[in-house]
Amino acid sequence: MYDHVAFFGSSEFAVPVLKSILDSTDVKVIVTQISRMAGRNRRLTPTPVSAFARKNGLNVMEVENVNDERFIKILKDLNIQLAIVVAFGQILKTTLLDSVPKGFFNVHASLLPAYRGAAPIQRALLDGVEETGITIFKIDKGLDTGKVALMGSLKVDPLDTFDTLSEKLSMLGSSLIKKFMESPEIILKDQNGAPSYAKKISSEETIIRWNYPAAKIGNLIRAFDSRPGSRTTLNGEMVKLFGFKGISQMRGRPGEILKINSEAIVGCEDFSIVISKIQFPSKRVMSFGEAQNGHKIISGSLFGA
User: CATH top-level class for 203-293?
Assistant: First the structure.
C-alpha cells in the first residue's frame, strides 16, 4: 500500500480515478490546473477535479506551472513519495519527476505504445478501432514512453462517441488504479509493439468532407461528440452534427439530406449516414425532427455546399 501520495488531474476523466485512489489511501495534495473563464457568460470556472476536491474538503492546489521550483519545494515539504497523473494538462519536466522518490505514474487512455500523445481517445475513434484500453506507466522524459505497470483493454462499440468511450475508459482506469495502489511490488515492463501518435486535434480536422466514405464520416462525428463537435455548412451557416446512429444503404449526393424524421439520413461518397442531432449557431443542440418543425431544414437540403 502506498502512502504520501499526490494526485495531478484536471478533467472529468480524472475524477473516478481520484475517487478510487481515495478509497485506497489518503491523498496529501490534489494538484490541478488553474480556474479559467468558460461558458457563454465567461465565468471563472474550476476544473472538474478542483470542484470535486473542494466539495469533499480535500487539500487542492491550482497550479499554473508545476515545474516551478517553489512548487517542487512544496512537494518535498509534504514528503510526497508517489504521484498519480490523469488528464492533467501540463508537461512534467525532469526536475519535477526526480523530486518524488517512487516517481510519477500516468493513467493513459490507450494501449501503449499505440496512441501516445494528447488525444488518444479521439484518434482511436477516428481510426475506427475495435479495441482500446488503459495503460498505467511510469513517466520518463519521453512522450508516453515509460515502463508499464498495468494495462487493461475493452471493446469499442460501433456507436461509441468521445463521451461514452471516455466514461468507459475512466471507469477502467479507476479499476486499474485500485489494483496498482494495492500492489507496490508490481514489476515494470517495457512497452511492446510499434508506437503511434495521437497529436492534438486541430480545428480543421473537425470539418466534415462529405465526399468521404460513410464509415469515415461516421467515425469523425463519433470522435468529436460532444466536444468540440463535427462541423459543416448549411445555407451559408456553420452547424455542428452529433449522434451518429449507423450507416444506411441509401445513396444520394454527398452531403444531401435524403430523409428526415427524428433523425436524418445524409448522403456520403458511397452510402449514407444516420445522425440524430444538429446545432445551429448560438442555439442548443436539437433533434432533426425539431429542426424540421422549426423550418430550419428540409429533405433535399445540402450540407457542405
Answer: alpha beta
pLDDT tens track for 55-100: 999 999 999 999 999 999 999 999 999 999 999 999 999 999 999 9
Q: Where are the domains of the chain?
A: 5-181, 203-293
**Residue pair 107/145 in contact by the 8 Å Cβ criterion:** no
Place of cell 449514407: 272
User: Quick check: pTM over 0.85?
Assistant: yes
CATH hierarchy code of domain 5-181: 3.40.50.170
| Rounded Cα–Cα distance for residues 113 and 128 (Å) | 17
